[in-house]
Amino acid sequence: MSVEVEVNESDLAEMVEQVWESYLDPEGISPLIPTYDANQPSEVHSSVSITGSWTGYVVYASSTEAARRAAGAFLAMDASEVSQEDVSDVLGELANIVGGNVKAMLPPGALLSLPQVTLAPESTARFPNSQRIGGVYGLWEGEPVSVSMWHGRGEKHEEVAV
Amino acid sequence: MKILIADDSRVMRQIVVRTLRQAGLGDHQLIEAADGKQAFDLTTSESPDLVLSDWNMPEMTGIEVLRQLRAAGNAVKFGFVTSECTPEMMQAAEAAGSLFFIVKPFSAERFDEVLAPILG
């Protein structure tokens, strides 16, 4: 039986902050500036699904430029030097890290999927019978980045062809 | 000493390598596995002194790798570096013979704290 989520936006914000401190902004000079705009645009996204005691998705979405910068930060390289494979890998890992931390706060019996990466806007993804229940939305060095949670009833994630 | 880093994310393997260096543990011989099966096979063939394994990987999960190693009589020092860390996972890991959990995102200080005593 699915239970109500026990992770709120404040928890999510804390997880996102830890990711910034550890990997994306270890020197503390480029934080994610909150916009509180759930409708901000994205160009790429990644997600992990959680099933079991709670069912839903954790979705990381950003502009292509922010994804390249994230890959550069993870790899300690200039963003202009990263490959598309690097970008996809980092996007997947970002969803995986936040998803894993979300799962750790859920009741026992939750399973985390491997990440899915889609080099298309989050708006092209469909999470049937799911609704976004919260998120962290911001600008990182002027580029949009968001991490959101979707609560569903166990249906499969479907991508819409574009 | 020889350390095997098992993670399906190449970027995360690089970050683990970098963090080992930052923690002053970069002088060890480092080898990498890109999925659970490769982790099992390389642990068997390369006989590392320590395995740092992700939990959620294709082919075999980290806990499956650990269980199969122990079932095969392999007593290699083994711990998890993973974004997931629930009490039930920690119990399962400990019961299977895992020495530690390092949770992503992690710091060099955390690596040093956990690994320095193990690596001597």
Task: Chart the SSEs and their pairings.
The complex is a heterodimer of chains A (162) and B (120).
Chain A: H1 9-24, E1 32-34, E2 44-52, E3 56-62, H2 64-75, H3 84-104, E4 110-112, E5 116-118, E6 125-126, E7 131-140, E8 143-151, E9 158-159
Antiparallel strand pairs in A: 1-7, 2-3, 2-4, 2-5, 3-8, 6-9, 7-8
Helix pairs in contact in A: 1-3, 2-3
Chain B: E1 2-6, H1 10-22, E2 29-33, H2 36-46, E3 50-53, H3 62-71, E4 77-82, H4 87-96, E5 101-103, H5 108-119
Parallel strand pairs in B: 1-2, 1-3, 3-4, 4-5
Helix pairs in contact in B: 2-3
Oligomer: heterodimer
- Low-confidence blocks of residues of chain B: none
DSSP helical segment count of chain B: 5
Distance between the termini of chain A: 35 Å
Main beta sheet strand tally, sense and closure of chain B: 5 strands, parallel
Please state the overall shape of chain B, judged from the principal axes of the Cα atoms: globular
- Record field, number of beta strands of chain B: 5
Q: Helical stretch count of chain A?
A: 3
CATH class placement of chain A: Alpha Beta
List SSEs of chain B in N-to-C order. EHEHEHEHEH
Give a structural overview.
Chain A is an alpha+beta fold. Chain A has one domain (9-24, 31-152): 3-Layer(aba) Sandwich (Chemotaxis protein chec), CATH 3.40.1550. Chain A has helices at residues 9-24, 64-75, 84-104; strands spanning 32-34, 44-52, 56-62, 110-112, 116-118, 125-126, 131-140, 143-151, 158-159. In chain A, the strands form two sheets. In chain A, strands 1, 2, 3, 4, 5, 7 and 8 form a seven-stranded antiparallel β-sheet that branches. Chain A is globular. Chain B has one domain (2-119): Response regulator (Rossmann fold), CATH 3.40.50.2300. A five-stranded parallel β-sheet of chain B has the order 2-1-3-4-5. Chain B is globular and about 35 Å long. In chain B, strand 1, helix 1 (10-22) and strand 2 form a beta-alpha-beta unit. The longest helix of chain B has 13 residues, at 10-22. With 120 residues, chain B is of the alpha/beta class. Chain B has helices at 10-22, 36-46, 62-71, 87-96, 108-119, and strands at residues 2-6, 29-33, 50-53, 77-82, 101-103. The interface between A and B is medium-sized, with 29 and 22 residues.
